[in-house]
Specification:
Layout lengths: L8 H11 L23 E8 L10 E4 L5 E3 L5 E6 L5 E5 L6 E4 L5 E5 L10 E4 L2 E4 L6 E6 H4 L7 H4 L7 E4 L12 E4 L6 E4 L2 E3 L10 E8 L14 E6 L16 E3 L10 H13 L11 H8 L8 H5 L4 E3 L1
Organism: Dyadobacter jiangsuensis
Subcellular location: Cell outer membrane
GO molecular function: siderophore uptake transmembrane transporter activity
Length: about 325
């Protein structure tokens, strides 16, 4: 006997809701979860660097611009490097060749040709009783021009040459303004070099206005032999500027600074000094004695006498330069 089962409509609706997906709730702006982002995968880029003759150049520096990631080419001029993004720029540089920059983009193989850079080779260098181009220069000669000299803000030419000429050692003994004679310099540590300014031997170059110097050349070893026995310690050749055609030009420059000692001795007080001197005397195996007695300590302990820091009292904190 068949019976019909009647189910109320509300019961059927409740059953459907129980088996359906849970409701979704909207999150507020403060409840949003950031989407996980994957770092870009590193890509290998390889290639060959050649010269204008089509031969591979070994030892070329390949650097990802703005980073410390880099490599060099092998004996055949080939390289391989990893980049982080298609927007990375590879910088190719080598001595005697013009620097070149290449945006990677979608490339995985980059082959470039470096052009020779002859600008530095055509530079004229002042040598003994004449001039010579760098490309034909064979002697031990180094030079610096006026643009490189004035990059250091100092009114003493010797101090401005520090670190600019290989083999030249500069010793600064005083920072007092107007003291031109205390500073010393030598070539490779051998005595005082011969100084020649516009062909005339001079005692020093400290009194020359740095803005009046066109170039300075250092002659070392056999390159200085043309000046005879006076050039045994090397030669410093100074060439001053000459007038040139063109419009009149007025330049103004001002500099003011101060120098501070990196470190000074830290003196001890009288009580510490007396104590150390007594310890030294007691360790004398020949005649151990007490050099300072209690009567010597008493005035300082009672405040009747004060220790004086003469470094702080006499010396200035800074020395002006202008």
């Amino acid at each position: 006997m068949n019976k019909t089962l009647s189910i109320p409509l509300w019961a059927m609706s409740m059953a459907l809701l129980c088996h359906s997906n849970p409701p979704a709730y909207a999150l507020g702006s403060g409840d949003r979860q950031p989407a996980a982002t994957r770092p870009p995968a590193a890509t290998d880029v390889s290639g060959t660097v050649k010269d204008e003759k089509g031969e591979g150049i070994p030892g070329v520096n390949v650097l990802v611009k703005g980073t410390a990631t880099g490599t060099t080419t092998d004996v055949n001029g080939k390289f391989s490097i990893q980049i982080g993004a298609p927007t990375d720029v590879l910088v190719f540089s080598f001595v005697g060749y013009a620097k070149q920059e290449v945006t990677v983009g979608s490339q995985t193989t980059i082959n470039i040709t470096l052009a020779e850079d002859n600008r530095n080779l055509d530079e004229v260098v002042v040598v003994g009783y004449g001039t010579q181009k760098k490309v034909t220069l064979t002697g031990a000669v180094v030079s610096v021009n006026s643009q490189e000299i004035v990059t250091t803000k100092n009114q003493n030419v010797q101090n401005m040459l520090t670190g600019k000429l290989p083999g030249l050692r500069v010793v600064q003994k005083s920072s007092e303004p107007g003291d031109f004679n205390s500073n010393q310099f030598d070539i490779r540590g051998f005595g005082n070099p011969l100084i020649v300014i516009d062909g005339v031997p001079r005692d020093n170059i400290s009194r020359i206005d740095p803005n009046e110097i066109e170039s300075i050349s250092i002659l070392k070893d056999a390159a200085a032999a043309i000046y005879g026995v006076r050039a045994a310690n090397g030669v410093v050749l100074v060439t001053t500027k000459r007038g040139a055609g063109g419009r009149a030009k007025i330049e103004y420059s001002m500099y003011y600074g101060s120098q501070t000692a990196l470190g000074l001795p830290k003196p001890v007080g009288a009580i510490e000094r007396y104590t150390l001197m007594n310890e030294k005397s007691m360790h004398n195996v020949n005649s151990p004695t007490i050099r300072y007695s209690e009567s010597d300590f008493a005035p300082y302990r009672e405040g009747k006498l004060q220790s004086t820091d003469w470094y702080d009292l006499v010396m200035q904190k800074r020395a002006p330069q202008q």
